[in-house]
Write a structure and sequence with these properties.
With 493 residues, the chain is mostly helical. It has helices at 13-34, 41-61, 76-95, 97-103, 106-123, 135-195, 200-216, 219-224, 228-240, 252-255, 258-272, 275-280, 282-311, 317-345, 349-368, 373-376, 388-413, 422-435, 439-451, 457-473, 477-491.
């Protein structure tokens, strides 16, 4: 097997700048606009979602009006930034809906009502008894109270389990729909690209069609997603059922201003990242540390595998495009199947995540087997990621894992973020994802440039993925959920 020259791995300055520009624009705008205080995001979430969807889709559609021969061609740079900002910010607002939608699911409502009944029974004072009662009669209220407390604890455990699985189901279904939509749009965009032989105008048309697609399918969100009134009613229902929902100060709805919140956003970031604040939400930040490693690890597996297929296995561009389509297609299946596996096995979201991470690490580990003499000398014609056919199999395998991982990663995070501050904390979730995106590719590039063989990067990827597992296992979900409730209640004072 030939080893590609080091020139294959040297990134161009323009590509590095484009990646940096995208990361900075998405991260800064996402946080500046969506890290609101604990009170505005819920009622204003739909407005923010639709506003940023409009910004992104219109920016993409405007590509149709700027031909490459026009003096206005440089305007595509700010249009691209606006489209990225709109996408990143709307995704944060969309993610922030997950806890609200889960709380409104019928099975969660029933479990919450059952919990409220048992909690009220456990809180009822014991009736006074006459002093002439026998000792056995006097013990009956104590036994009944103990039984009520046990029932309340069991009801709470059942409620938390149902809420957790419902959250992961909604998140996974969203990932599956997103993958399906992306594949359909990709196939539609390929028509003008192939017909116009990949010209600049063909790419402009593809981007413009993507903007139209985005705008059209934002309409169902505008019609059916709950707005301010629905969220307010849901919050009132939670309060009646005894859930810990932070109170909102009178007049907050009138006070809120996006302009003022943008100015406050960066101050809040500094406050959130103080050690004193991190200790209050230790488990939330522990998970963010694991997410920093995992999000970068998964995306680096994708980019490294494609680069490996191109430079080492010498796969043509058409084959790489097919792999790029197979991965999200398998992601749809994985997103839908894993919630069923979870329900059948009775696993928690944390356990599912650990299993998915372990399964993902098998891909770079399999690539490391290519260094074994049995594969190097060609004694065995298949194995160790030495043939193009293996890339197709791994694309399906990785897609099924990655699709489920994306759904469970954001659903698990929803379990221990402060109620009412979802947009703020999902913005930090997004920033953690974006800010880590350069680490893996940078190290992989250095390894490939130093050794001249990108296969060595698979060892780094195995270590990177497994380094996140002990951090992930250190998350105490119950304590994290309680800490988030206390944090929200304290912030509301």
């Amino acid at each position: 097997m030939s080893i590609p020259s080091r020139s294959h791995f040297k990134p161009s300055l323009s590509s590095l700048w484009a990646g940096l520009q995208t990361t900075v624009s998405v991260s800064s705008a996402t946080y500046a606009y969506l890290t609101n205080a604990h009170y505005p995001p819920a009622p204003h979430r739909k407005k923010l979602l639709l506003a940023f969807a409009a910004l992104g889709s219109i920016s993409a559609i405007l590509f149709l009006l700027v031909p490459s021969t026009s003096p206005a061609w440089p305007l595509i740079a700010p249009l691209a930034v606006c489209a990225n900002v709109g996408f990143g910010a709307s995704i944060v607002a969309l993610n922030a809906y997950i806890p609200t939608l889960a709380q409104g699911a019928q099975e969660v409502i029933e479990a919450r009502a059952n919990l409220a009944r048992h909690t009220r029974s456990a809180d009822l004072p014991a009736e006074p008894h006459d002093s002439a009662d026998t000792a056995s009669e006097a013990d009956e209220p104590l036994l009944a109270q103990t039984s009520d407390e046990d029932s309340a604890r069991a009801a709470k455990a059942e409620h938390d389990k149902i809420l957790s699985t419902t959250t992961s189901r909604i998140s996974s279904q969203g990932i599956a729909l997103g993958y399906a939509s992306g594949i359909v749009m990709l196939l539609l965009a390929l028509i003008p690209v192939r017909a116009m032989k990949g010209s600049t105008d063909a790419l402009r048309l593809a981007i413009g069609l993507s903007g139209i697609w985005w705008a059209v399918f934002s309409l169902p969100a505008a019609v059916w997603l709950p707005g301010a009134a629905t969220i307010a009613n849901a919050t009132h229902s939670l309060e009646e059922d005894g859930d810990n929902v932070p109170p909102r100060a009178a007049g907050d709805e009138q006070k809120w201003s996006m302009t003022r919140e943008i100015a406050r956003a960066w101050r809040r970031l500094g406050q959130m990242l103080r050690w004193r604040e991190i200790k209050k939400l230790r488990n939330t930040f522990t998970y963010l540390a694991a997410w920093f490693l995992l999000s970068d690890g998964f995306t680096t597996i994708t980019s490294t595998a494609l680069l490996f297929g191109k430079t080492t296995l010498h796969m043509p561009a058409s084959s790489l495009v097919l792999i790029g389509a197979l991965t999200p297609s398998a992601g749809i299946l994985g997103s839908l199947v894993w919630p069923m596996v979870q329900r059948r096995a009775g696993w928690s979201n944390l356990r599912v995540l650990v299993v998915l991470v372990a399964m993902a690490s098998a891909i770079p580990a399999y690539g490391c087997l290519g260094f074994l003499p049995v594969f190097q000398k060609g004694s065995v014609k298949f194995g160790g990621l030495t043939t193009p056919a293996e890339m197709y199999v791994l694309a399906v395998y990785f897609g099924s894992v990655y699709g489920a991982f994306q759904g469970y990663a954001r659903a698990f995070y929803a379990e221990f973020i402060p109620p009412g501050e979802e947009a703020r904390w999902y913005a930090l979730f997004s920033i953690t994802d974006k800010s880590s995106s350069f680490v893996g590719p940078l190290v992989v590039g250095l390894i490939a440039d130093t050794t001249g063989n990108i296969r060595y990067a698979f060892f780094f990827l195995v270590v990177m993925i497994w380094a996140a597992v002990p951090v992930l296992m250190a998350v105490d979900v119950e304590r994290g959920r309680a800490d988030a409730q206390r944090y929200a209640a304290h912030a509301a004072m």
